[in-house]
Design a protein that fits this description.
Elements lengths: L14 H4 L4 H6 E10 L2 E6 L2 E5 L14 E5 L5 E4 L5 E5 L7 E6 L3 E7 L6 H14 L2 E7 L7 H9 L6 E4 L5 H4 L11 E5 L6 H9 L23 E4 L5 E4 L12 H7 L1 H7 L16 H8 L4 H47 L1
Parallel strand pairs: 8-9, 8-11, 9-10, 11-13
Antiparallel strand pairs: 1-2, 1-4, 2-3, 4-5, 6-7, 12-13
Helix pairs in contact: 3-7, 7-8
Length: about 350
């Protein structure tokens, strides 16, 4: 459990949340933050509160790690969830169409990769699109620089993916090296940490928090570590903030991320607006600005290919989600009609 002596500001409470409270809520309810979601229980912490409660909400309306809830002061039952400042979500792994909530109210996303075979531009673009869609500041953290001759080659490749993107190269084992991340780790700040297995996430968490999280060695055949973290959880940072660790998301499916993709691929979006036809497919149409950029070398064919793939994936998942919501609404109307008919028969 987390120390109950923490104040709301220590937990990340800001005016954004306090302005959402009604006068009567100030007198009857206590704000608490969701620190972890377990099967059948939610761990919440507030000012002088540290307890487990039953799950709150369902599907996309369910409480997730980082959320703020109001608890009834007498019964310690959830009253409502406050509006989120940010939300990370994805299509759940597998063939289903459900949306999985990852974390809420995060300020900064540390996208961890390593200077070896794990470095993957396409994967970085996915994480960047997810961050920008959520309105969260992304910071690319490159680890294991000692494994290559020039880590700056990796840093330059990453920095080109988004204008103004901050890229930090560090040794996750050394506190002095990891100190470059402290500006995002201060009191009341919340950072999330994502990246594939084996890039040094647990090592970095140990360094930033001082906790003894288990790590695993590198396999010589593929430079990847064995997966260590198994669940999302909050860690208190030595600088006063909070760090949310997430398991390696091997099936990161984007959904409802059109704006995030538009930011990450702003150069391509700008080119599409210069095409003669608004529905240009950038294949055989005349006066296509995208094709012209490819011919001059201003646009790399691989980048265009990655944009098309992610845009198509996002559109496909959005369509699946819309279909699922329509089906649920239809089922809800049918259930309501059945219950109404049953009530009428009973009255007769």
């Amino acid at each position: 459990m987390t120390s109950p002596s923490l104040g709301l500001a220590d937990l990340g409470w800001t005016p954004f949340f306090s302005t959402q409270l009604e006068t009567d809520e100030l007198n009857n309810f206590d704000p608490v933050r969701v620190m972890a979601v377990h099967r059948g229980r939610i761990h919440v912490v507030g000012a002088s509160i540290d307890t487990l409660i039953l799950p709150f909400g369902e599907d996309e309306a369910a409480a997730t790690v980082g959320d703020w809830l109001l608890l009834d002061r007498g019964s310690i039952r959830p009253h409502r969830r406050l509006t989120r400042a940010s939300l990370f979500k994805r299509r759940a792994p597998g063939t289903g169409r459900e949306v999985q909530l990852i974390a809420a109210n995060v300020d900064t996303l540390f996208i961890v990769s390593s200077c070896n075979q794990d470095f993957n531009v396409a994967r970085l673009e996915r994480y960047l699109a997810m961050a920008r869609e959520a309105g969260v500041t992304p910071v690319v953290v490159l680890t294991k620089a000692d494994l290559v001759d020039s880590s700056q080659d990796f840093a330059r490749s990453a920095s080109k993916l988004l204008p103004g993107l901050v890229v930090e190269v560090l040794d996750a084992r050394e506190a002095e090296s990891a100190a470059v991340l402290l500006p995002w780790c201060g009191a009341g700040q919340t950072v999330a940490l994502v990246g594939s297995s084996g890039v040094g996430k647990s090592t970095l968490i140990n360094t930033l928090t001082g906790e003894g999280i288990a790590t695993q060695g590198i396999r010589a055949d593929d430079d990847k570590g064995r997966h260590t973290t198994t669940a999302r959880s909050f860690h208190r940072l030595k600088a006063g903030g909070w760090l949310l660790d997430t398991p390696g998301m091997r099936e990161l499916q984007l959904t409802d991320a059109e704006e995030g993709l538009a930011e990450v691929f702003a150069d391509i979006v700008a080119l599409t607006e210069q095409c003669r036809f608004s529905d240009c497919r950038h294949e055989t149409e005349p006066d296509c600005a995208v094709k012209a950029a490819l011919e001059t070398g201003a646009l790399e064919a691989e980048r265009l290919k990655r944009w098309r793939k992610l845009a198509a994936e996002n559109a496909r998942n959005d369509a699946s989600l819309a279909e699922r919501r329509a089906t649920e609404r239809s089922f809800g109307r049918m259930a309501k009609q059945v219950m109404e008919g049953k009530r009428r028969r009973q009255e007769e």
